[in-house]
Amino acid sequence: MYKIGPSLMCTDLGNVERDIKELDEAGVDFYHIDIMDGTFVPNFTLGPDFVKAVRNLTDKPLDIHIMTEKPERFIDLFHEAGSDMIAIHAETTNNLQGTLSKIQDLGMKAGVAINPSTPLDVLEYVYNVTDYVVVMTVNPGFAGQTFIPEMYDKIAQLKEEITKRNLEIEVMVDGNIGKDTIPKSKEKGATSFVGGTSSVYKSENTLTENVKNTRKLLNGGE
Ligand code: DX5
Ligand code: ZN
């Protein structure tokens, strides 16, 4: 029931094929691909050509996390590149409802990502067109940041809103997800976990070992 998705901005870009093969065999559930525009977040990462390349390497779901202004401009582009799930930031669009509906109409899962300072209110009228919510547990832009502890309450409140409405929306957490933060995030209601430098890409172990250790944590062990 708990899912782990490596954040491919942390993968070795010179060895994407090798890494994906290893991660596929290690049994990850999906791949998380960060798209940044240098404006909404102060960094650049991956793009549609990368998504296409990864699409040719794996059959696992590709989860696209768009961190650009006006993401509605890019839904078709990422759909054609082979995305299965697209999350857009509530802070970046004047048409959250319409864009989520469009993602779903194209046959993909629609996600809303929310920055640490964004209240859950933005979700109020779009729960019915949302398949997953990405609770940012750091401010997006860079790997290797520190989990913002106030986000535990946010995860719990979100879970409560979803349960109250009897919906099947998945709660994904993104940012500094690892052994120090997985147990409590899980306890608060997160079910999907983005694995970056704090888990899947921990440099002291192989990817296979890291996935195994993360899976153990997700299943309740140490
Ligand atoms: C941004 C990214 C990062 C990152 C997560 O959206 O998804 O949050 O790669 O990995 P950490 O924080 O563990 O380096
Ligand atoms: Zn992300």
Instruction: Tell me the number of strands.
Output: 8
- Flag low-confidence runs: none
The overall average pLDDT, rounded, is 97
How much of the polypeptide forms β-strand, as a percent range? 15-25%
| Sheet of most strands | 8 strands, parallel
Biggest sheet: strand arrangement: 1-8-7-6-5-4-3-2
What is the CA-CA span between the terminal residues? 18 Å
Structural class: alpha/beta
Order of helices and strands: EHEHEHEHEEHEHEH
Annotated CATH homologous superfamily:
Aldolase class I
Highest-level CATH class: Alpha Beta
Shape: globular
Q: Could you tell me the radius of gyration in angstroms?
A: 16 Å
Describe this protein with a few key phrases.
222 residues, alpha/beta, TIM Barrel, 8-stranded parallel sheet, 7 helices, 8 strands, 31% helix, binds D-xylitol-5-phosphate, binds zinc ion
Describe this structure in words.
The chain is α/β, with parallel strands linked by helices and 222 residues long. It has a single domain (3-218), classed as Alpha-Beta Barrel (TIM Barrel). Helices cover 31% and strands 18% of the residues. The protein has 7 helices and 8 strands, in the order βαβαβαβαββαβαβα. The protein has helices at residues 16-26, 48-55, 75-81, 96-105, 151-164, 182-188, 207-218, and strands at 3-6, 31-36, 62-67, 85-89, 109-114, 132-136, 170-174, 192-195. It has an 8-stranded parallel sheet with strand order 1-8-7-6-5-4-3-2. Helix 5 links the parallel strand 6 and strand 7. The longest helix is centred in the C-terminal third of the chain and has 14 residues, at 151-164. The mean pLDDT is 97. Bound molecules: D-xylitol-5-phosphate and zinc ion (ZN).
